[in-house]
Specification:
The complex is a heterodimer of chains A (268) and B (406).
Chain A (H helix, E strand, L loop, with lengths): L28 H27 L4 H6 L2 H32 L9 H13 L2 H12 L3 H25 L3 H9 L4 H31 L12 H10 L2 H29 L5
Chain B lengths: L2 H4 L14 E8 L9 E8 L4 E5 L6 H8 L7 E6 L2 E2 L5 H5 L2 E5 L10 H5 L1 H5 L4 H14 L4 H4 L9 H13 L5 E5 L7 H18 L2 E5 L3 H7 L2 E6 L3 E6 L1 H6 L4 H7 L3 H8 L12 E3 L4 H11 L5 E3 L5 E3 L3 H5 L14 E3 L4 H10 L4 E5 L5 E6 H31 L1
Parallel strand pairs in B: 3-8, 3-9, 6-7, 7-8, 11-12, 14-15
Antiparallel strand pairs in B: 1-2, 1-4, 4-5, 9-10, 12-13, 15-16
The chains are: A mainly alpha (268), B alpha/beta (406).
């Protein structure tokens, strides 16, 4: 067609304003770095530790304390302490937090958060020892202490997360005829999940670190290596304890991030 | 003008599926506040009409709207839906029978478009097959391709598209009444105009009872079969058809609110369908061009409107371009700008200014071709209304003089 004149079809905008070029789930570069770097780092440092452990000359006390069997069981205890406490924290703090955003309980929220705040401000050793004096030592006493200690971040984030849900969405839900429970479980909780899970991660890390003190009340954990190192003044034991605790904390932090990403509802 | 003229009686396309709403002495008083938010509002909203609530912010229009679906409970008074007191059933089951559309769509961000639209049908216990069919039907109705948009999340949609889904969600369970709270407040002017046109065209088919809150008098004039202008405390300043409100504002408040330039407003009050449409030569895609060219030459047209097999306009080539081909060609339908018959003269003028033909194609339901509007027919219509208005003023002035004498 040798047409010099432009087609007479007036071309204005396309059918609609253009949809944003976005995928439903946003993964930023920062997220990728935070997901990839920690496990690599942990593996590298742990590799270095294994190499040192196999090659270093250790005296009998050190060799006794650093047997692979001992390290493994202490680590397992530590993981158990952390995960069981974290599970209890979630089971208690999330429902409690949700309750504190509902109607008549709302007024109590500042009080409860205040108490949780004070609980966390108290020295962790103090809390553990207090519970020891009251309940005697052992695994479950440590669990109670750690759970009390880790409850605040989850509680606070649950309340903040639910309060932070756009009120027009809640009203939209009610306007469409959802009951109170439906708006809670279909709208408010799913939308608050990212904030709640950030609290869970913080709590996990707090608990993993504090679990090092469980050895004081006979509940095991990697703190034992550290404690032995300090009381017998074995530098290698102190460093080993500190490094292993740090590695475990990093790994649990990472686990928290993975959980955060995995539980995040698609679309937000 | 009488209200029958602009009530949907003049557009008999769909059967009324709406229900009458009646507010009787409805009062809303908040504790601790001296003035009532709504002091004794009584009004009847006829079935199948769009009523726009307008007024300055804080006049109680949104409160009045939310009392209809009991998001706000009135302090006293009765609201009847189809004659039945709305308190006779639970608030949740009432709300499932009343569509609710909010500014910006207020879609649930963690649900797909389909899940969002399906919220109410799911609560009503529809089976999944029926829900899926209904969702596709509604997306189609609001102009979104179901295959493309069904599984998207709200954040993957533009503002206008989100608003469309919001409308689809409001209509999902086929409620007799639809409440819209500033529905098109959050989108840009061009998209807003489109959405308004589409709402009018959807309403032509469905004939729901729609209550639409807006602060924009132009939107109210465009959408409303009737307009309720509210003053502080939800006192009715005027409740009438757009024509009457523009021609005879009840008091200074209404006159101020409607504002100056009422002959320009007339432009946005008059719909394209009330003009005489021109009928240039048309042709169907794939037709032999020979006879088409002959027809056009006989009629003295220099261009041809090309329609597809469902009589929807697809292209508008000059005669010279038609001669170049043996058969009538089509172009993608999206490239052709057309106007719905419910578009206002304002929109028509706007579109003509950017069109190479200085005319614009007008379509009816489901984009079916109706005819063409040109500049002359618009100005002719305006001159005529102005003459009529001047005549009326003269008559009215005469009466007043007589009254003064007597």
């Amino acid at each position: 067609m040798a047409e010099s004149r432009p087609a007479p079809v007036p071309v204005v905008e396309s059918d609609d304003d253009v949809a944003p070029e976005q995928s439903a789930r946003v993964i930023t570069r920062e997220m990728v770095i935070m997901l990839v770097v920690p496990p690599v780092l942990v593996a590298a440092v742990f590799g270095a530790f294994v190499w040192w452990r196999q090659t270093a000359e250790l005296d009998s006390v050190e060799a006794q304390q650093l047997r692979w069997g001992v390290i493994r069981s202490l680590m397992w205890e530590h993981v158990q302490l952390t995960l069981v406490s974290a599970a209890i924290v979630v089971l208690v703090a999330v429902p409690l937090g949700i309750m504190l955003t509902r109607g008549r309980f709302r007024a109590a929220a500042p009080v409860v958060v205040g108490i949780a705040n004070a609980g966390q401000a108290a020295p962790s050793v103090g809390l553990i020892v207090l519970l020891f004096l009251w309940l005697d030592g052992g695994f479950w006493t440590a669990i109670y202490a750690l759970s009390l200690y880790g409850i605040l971040p989850v509680l606070r984030n649950t309340i903040v997360g639910i309060q932070g849900v756009d009120p027009t969405l809640v009203e939209a839900g009610r306007g469409l005829g959802m009951t109170g429970a439906m708006t809670l479980f279909r709208i408010e909780v799913p939308l608050a999940i990212p904030v709640i899970m950030a609290g869970v991660r913080t709590s996990l890390v707090l608990i993993a670190g504090t679990a090092s003190l469980a050895c004081f009340i006979d509940a095991g954990g990697l703190g034992e290596i550290l404690q032995t190192g300090i009381s017998l003044f074995r530098f290698s034991l102190m460093v080993t304890g500190a490094v292993l605790i740090a590695l475990l904390a990093l790994l649990i932090e990472w686990l928290g991030r993975v959980l955060e990403l995995a539980t995040r509802p698609k679309g937000i | 003008m009488t209200q029958t003229e602009s009530s949907p009686g003049s557009s008999p396309e769909g059967a009324i599926s709406g229900a009458e709403l009646r507010l009787e002495n409805v009062v809303k008083r908040y504790p601790g506040q001296k003035a009532a938010a709504v002091e004794s509002l009584s009004l009847t909203i006829p079935a199948g009409e769009i009523v726009a609530f307008v007024g300055p912010s804080g006049c109680g229009k949104t409160t009045s709207l939310k009392m209809i679906n009991r998001l706000i409970e009135p302090t006293s008074g009765t609201i009847r839906l189809d004659g039945e007191d709305i308190r006779s059933e639970s608030a949740t089951s009432l709300r499932r029978k009343i569509g609710y559309v909010i500014q910006g769509g207020s879609l649930f961000p963690h649900m797909t478009v389909a899940t969002n639209v399906a919220v109410v049908p799911k609560m009503l216990g529809w089976d999944s097959k029926r829900i899926a069919t209904r969702v596709d039907e509604l997306l189609d109705l609001v102009g979104l391709d179901p295959d493309r948009y069904r599984d998207r999340y709200p954040r993957e949609l533009s503002g206008g598209q989100q608003q469309r889904v919001g409308v689809a969600r409001g209509l999902a369970a086929d409620p007799p009444v639809l409440l819209m709270d500033e529905p098109f407040g959050a989108v840009d002017p061009i998209t807003r105009q489109r959405l308004q046109d589409e709402l009018i065209s959807i309403q032509r088919e469905l004939r729901k009872t729609i209550v639409c809150v807006t602060h924009d008098i132009d939107e109210a004039i465009k959408l409303g079969d009737r307009i309720l202008i509210l003053q502080e405390g939800a006192k009715i300043a005027q409740y009438d058809t757009p024509d009457t409100i523009l021609a005879a504002p009840a008091n200074d408040f209404v006159a101020d609110f409607v504002g100056a330039g009422s002959s320009l407003k007339q432009l946005s009050l008059t719909r394209v369908r009330s003009l005489d449409l021109g009928q240039p030569t048309t042709a169907h895609v794939g037709e032999d061009t020979g006879p088409v060219v002959r027809r056009a030459e006989e009629a003295g047209d220099d261009s041809v409107v090309v329609l597809d097999d469902r009589d929807r306009p697809v292209a508008w080539p000059w005669l010279r371009q038609v001669r170049h081909n043996d058969r009538v060609q089509s172009t993608p339908r999206e490239l052709l700008v057309t106007l719905d018959q419910a578009a206002t003269l304002n929109d028509a003028l706007d579109t003509m200014l950017t069109s190479a033909h200085s005319k614009v194609i007008v379509t009816g339901d489901r984009d079916r071709y109706l005819g063409v509007v040109d500049f002359e027919s618009v100005t002719e219509h305006m001159r005529r209304t102005e003459r009529d208005a001047a005549q009326q003023m003269q008559d009215a002035g005469g009466h007043e003089a007589v009254d003064a004498d007597g």
